[in-house]
Amino acid sequence: MATTYEIISTAQGRHLKITGDLPQGFHGEQQGDSWVCPLDAQNAAAVRQAMPWTAPTTVGLKKSIGCGDRLGLATPGHILAVQGTDMFPVFAQQSIREMERSNRTPQNVMDDATFGVLQMNYQSGFGSDADHLKNIKAIDDCIAAGFVGFTLDPNEHVDNAAHTDDHATLQQKFDSLPWDALETSADDLKKLYIGNTPGGAIDEEALLRATGKYSRAIAHVTKLARYIASEFNGQPYDLEVSVDETDTPTSPAEHYFFASELKRLGVDFHGLAPRFIGSFEKGVDYIGDLDVFENDFAVHAKIARELGPYKLSIHTGSDKFSIYPIIFKHTGQYVHLKTAGTSWLEALRVVAMHNVPLFREILDFAIERYPTDRASYHVSGDLSKVPANPADSELPDLFEQFDARQVLHVTFGSILDHYRKPVYDVLYEHNDTYDAVLKKHFDRHIAPFQNN
């Protein structure tokens, strides 16, 4: 009898059903001619060993979309959306911050993606993204879990004050830069950058701002990137660098400086996430003038093509429908759209559809938690604008309302701390609905990046 694998749901939860002899590496309980196996790390590792297409691969410069999954149940719906498109999916994606808030580990994230890919028999390949990594400990944990894609986040080393510092302060900061770590000198750096660049003219003042703002971040990225390279020892991996979570936008000249310095220091990266102008808030469309955005973004895209090419990565990229055509127009293939919390909101949509009392409890709880939980997010949602006491028929409209979306978005960790089991119970019972709403939602994200 040929061995077959199937993800099934029972009264005890979801399991892996193996029909035939139990292959080496798996463990489970025999039931007739089948084995019912837990969805744990041992069995996930055995699945990847038996079926290599359930393990992540490198993405490289392929046009791609990051499909973050805070619950570990969204991969089937994501697969339904990406099938038949030319956007390469990244299914195993979550930041360390979000893992902590959802009580997950890098191994959980990887294993959930593996089981989702197995469930859908998806053999077209997918990527992984250990997102917003800040230190070697986090890198080690993600490498051990099987990640082959990494996003380095040096934002704690970005000096936003340099955006407005006076000349004397900038000069003092320049003189005190970690020149040994940067492997250059003040004179050599001035000779290299002062003049015309694809990012616009860089005079001495502009260079002082760029170095003051980003040079310590560049040194930190270089340290972490070299560590990853040494761990992979010639084997392929993906690397992205993100400075999107800063207070001030990355000017084209600063983008040119940042990317050029990484290249000078031998950092081989596939993607860069600048802090673009305008406002990229969680769960809602772009806020800002579209013409101003396009003029600025076009220069960023030109720099990425000329210095790389490398992909521009659009962080907090979900639901930014008004700028997707602009982004695709100027990047073409060289783009990565990163989403995360939007799949969580679609999960809550399913809860609202099938368990109204539970959703109302969650909404009240989220409103209570929002003033605290919003602290580490860039959001402007106003509690006073969240519709009060909506009728049951009006609950779906909350997922189209700016303020309600942000309230439900950023409180996900607190919600899971209090309502984890009932939320999962609804999604287990209505997994087909969750898959369908995810497909519909992600179809809207992917369509603007297709050539037809």
Question: What this model shows, in words?
Answer:
This protein has 452 residues and is an alpha/beta fold. Among the domains are: 4-50, no CATH class; 153-339, no CATH class; 354-429, no CATH class. Helices cover 47% and strands 14% of the residues. The chain has 17 helices and twelve strands. An eight-stranded parallel beta barrel has the order 5-6-7-8-9-10-11-12, surrounded by seven helices. Strands 1-2-4-3 form a four-stranded antiparallel sheet, covered by helices on one side. Strand 1 (4-10) and strand 2 (13-19) form a beta hairpin. The model has no long low-confidence stretch (mean pLDDT 96).
Short description:
With 452 residues, this protein is of the alpha/beta class.
Profile the largest sheet: 8 strands, parallel, barrel
Q: N- to C-terminal separation?
A: 45 Å
Order of helices and strands: EEEEHEHEHHEHEHHHHEHEHEHEHHHHH
Overall spatial form: globular
Rg estimate, integer Å: 23 Å
Overall residue-averaged pLDDT value:
96
Taken as a percent bin, the fraction of beta residues is 5-15%
Question: Percent of residues in helical segments?
Answer: 40-55%
What labels describe this entry?
14% strand, 12 strands, alpha/beta, eight-stranded parallel barrel, single chain, 47% helix, 452 residues, four-stranded antiparallel beta sheet, 17 helices
